[in-house]
Design a protein that fits this description.
Largest sheet: none
Oligomer: single chain
Distance between the termini: 29 Å
Radius of gyration: 24 Å
Helix content: over 70%
CATH class: Mainly Alpha
Number of strands: 0
Number of helices: 23
Shape: globular
């Protein structure tokens, strides 16, 4: 190996741009996986994705039957486990917040946040649930208007449906994202591991199982991310075209869907190429501003007094019923074999939605971890759970209350629209506003596009970490990933139809079931890491996040990977 010259040494000691580029924090302390494992992780997932898509397109009915069968089995036999998983996530977030370990700072004691609170919250919301809330904030309460599971139906139309909306999109869902993100964030920012599920998990396993388990875990994360984003991309194009159709601009057909995918793909590629500060940060902040405009406009233009009263009342019911909803399993259904998941209320709603959250955890949590350096674990957990939950409740409370009001006034016009197409409910409600509805429909349509661009952008950042770690991905590589995801979405819509896309997405969600066991291992590993955090680990955290020049920095390649083991360093687990 070539010895650095005195000039190089002086450059490094002076904090030159070359050094800063080479020693990006945290310094790498993870595992460089063997070439064979890396090849499998990069090559096998695309092959499996092609096979899955091909199978669904060639035999959609057969594959759908298998998926429906598996969904029924999970609903009937494992509902208790999914509910327990959600409770473990909530419990872990509470422990992280109130224990003394909540003071631990992600990135070491001197790390400062990379993004302002406004930018951070905007990106959290944009990568997590923004796109879903555009439609489900009204569609779910309307669909549960006359069947709210264990919650009573009373004289206030749709009250229990709104409360379930708070539950499914609020604190518990964000805790499920947050606990996974905390596992990844501490592993990466404090221990110098790669930002991957593999390195956040495998050191809890026996030594002989770590290598094969790491490959399987990483492949599951990659496949879930690609198929999840592709199917969401396909549905986003359908929903966006519904907005255009409502505005009388374009029809909703395959050609329109493909054009929309290409346009949104180009926007997402540009955002991914220019980076977080110039790309996703700007779009996310624009999302937040437009969302505030939409929600406040509905509050002011719509039935303001009813909305405010309903928001207060449903919030009280939510807090009163939170424990009951959190533990609702429906064990009476196991007294006899369940013919179909459709016979279970939970099969339609809570179990399905929690599996959805688990399926999207790889890219949502991976991105949240990526942007959260510099915050204490306590600040992180509160920021990822409490603040987004409050935003969700305000959003659903206003949008759904207005929808319920106008649905009653129009004798079920919005209910009929949602029954025909769940993505049309928001537009139907906005159309019934006394004035300004058309302009707000434009805002809502734009939000569909921009929220999905940010979702795809965040997913691309997470996916690039999974695929290229421990080496850093280039902007061009992220663009290639966006193009690949867009291609899968186009194939699904062009060669199949809505049912094909729905089959693949449901399959991804069913695939989340085994991934829940991986996440439970991650949670156990984070608990172990924090409880055994000693002076040596604290020293390690300082060393790998030291912004000043260190002798070991002379022995790093362009990705920050040591060319030789640094001397006098503490090895972490």
């Amino acid at each position: 190996m070539t010895t650095p010259s005195n000039k190089d040494q002086n450059q490094k000691e002076s904090g030159s741009p070359e050094l800063k580029a080479q020693t990006s924090l945290p310094r790498f302390r993870g595992t460089v996986i063997p070439p064979l494992d890396s090849l499998i992780i990069k090559v096998l997932p695309p092959i499996l994705i092609i096979l899955v898509v091909a199978a669904v397109i060639m035999n959609p009915t057969g594959v759908s039957d298998i998926i429906q069968y598996l969904r029924t089995k999970i609903t009937s036999g494992w509902a208790w486990f999914i509910i327990l998983y959600s409770l473990v996530s909530v419990g872990m977030c509470i422990w992280l917040t109130f224990s003394k370990l909540g003071k631990v700072r992600l990135g070491g004691p001197k790390a400062a946040p990379e993004f302002s609170n406004f930018a951070w919250y905007s990106m959290l919301f944009a990568c997590g649930q923004g796109i879903g809330l555009i439609f489900w904030s009204l569609a779910e309460p309307i669909m549960l208007k006359n069947d709210a599971g264990i919650l009573p139906i009373n004289s206030n139309p749709g009250e229990s449906g709104i409360v379930w909306g708070y539950f499914h999109w609020g604190f518990t869902a964000w805790a499920m994202y947050g606990v996974v993100a905390a596992c990844l964030a501490y592993s990466h920012h404090n221990l110098g591991k790669t930002l991957t599920f593999r390195e956040a998990t495998v050191d809890l396993l026996p030594k002989a199982a770590q290598r094969p388990a790491g490959v399987v875990i990483e492949m599951l994360a990659i496949i879930a991310t690609v198929l999840g984003l592709a199917t969401s991309f396909a549905f986003a194009s359908i929903q966006f075209s519904s907005g255009l159709q409502t505005l009388g601009l374009l029809g909703s057909n395959t050609t329109t869907w493909v054009v929309i995918i290409v346009v949104l793909g180009v926007l997402a590629s540009f955002s991914a190429f220019v980076g977080l500060d110039k790309g996703m940060k700007i779009v996310s902040e624009a999302n937040t501003i437009l969302s505030i405009v939409l929600v406040l406009s509905v509050l002011v233009i719509g039935p303001t007094v009813y909305i405010l009263g309903n928001l207060v009342q449903t919030t009280g019911v939510f807090f009163d019923q939170f424990i009951t909803m959190s533990f609702y399993v429906g064990p009476e259904l196991t007294m006899s074999p369940l013919a179909s998941w459709k016979d279970s209320w939970n099969g339609w709603w809570t179990i399905f939605i929690w599996c959805w959250v688990i399926a999207f955890s790889p890219f949502v949590a991976g991105f949240i971890a990526r942007i959260s350096r510099g915050r204490t674990i306590r600040e992180f957990v509160i920021g990822v759970t409490v603040i987004p939950s409050a935003i969700v409740m305000i959003w659903i409370g206003i949008i759904a209350s207005a929808g319920m009001y106008y649905d009653e006034q129009s004798k079920g016009l919005i209910s009929a629209a949602i029954k025909a197409d769940s993505s049309s409910g928001l537009f139907a409600m906005l159309d019934l506003l006394p004035f300004g509805g058309s302009l707000l429909m434009v805002v809502a349509t734009i939000l569909v596009a921009t929220y999905y661009v940010t979702s795809l952008d965040s997913g691309t950042y997470a996916l690039s970490e999974f695929v290229s770690a421990p080496r850093k991905s280039s902007p061009a590589f992220r663009v290639v990933l966006v193009a690949s995801i867009a291609t899968v979405a186009i194939v699904l819509l062009s060669l199949g139809d809505n049912a094909v896309v729905d089959t693949v997405q449901t399959g991804v969600i069913i695939g989340a079931f085994p991934f829940a066991f991986v996440i439970l291992l991650m949670i156990a590993n984070l608990f172990r890491r924090l409880k055994t955090r000693n002076k040596a680990i604290k020293k390690l955290e300082k060393e790998i996040n030291d912004p000043n020049f260190r002798e070991e920095d002379l022995l790093l390649d362009e990705h920050g990977i040591p060319l030789a083991p640094p001397a006098n360093t503490v090895k972490s687990d």
